[in-house]
Amino acid sequence: MLHLQIGYHLNRPFRTSEIMDQLQPLILESLQLLLLGMGTVFVILVLLIVLITLVSRMFADYQDEPLHDGVRRPGSVHASSIPSADTQDQVIAVISAAVSAYRHRHTRK
Length: 109
What we know:
By secondary structure, the chain is mainly α. It has a domain at 1-63. The protein has two helices and two strands; from the N terminus they run E-E-H-H. The chain has helices at residues 16-60, 85-105; strands at 8-9, 12-13. It has a two-stranded antiparallel sheet. The radius of gyration is 34 Å and the shape is elongated. The termini are far apart. The mean pLDDT is 79.
């Protein structure tokens, strides 16, 4: 373990160069540990991205396939499940009426 003594040693002050000579190996070791740690994290994150990409490509083949009884898997979108413009207008009207009723009941008088 390296000890830094700031002040007088044997009746003479330390010079800045002596302190830097003592600190230089510590700074180099800290930079090595920094690069090793950041490199390890980078490699792990790259591996994680590659694995997630591979798994998503592997399961992309099974998406939107009908089951044996002709029913589609949950989460798949059917053309019949997309609301028409008339249905969307009705939904907007119902939401607007609900918001208006809520505001009417909760206004301060």
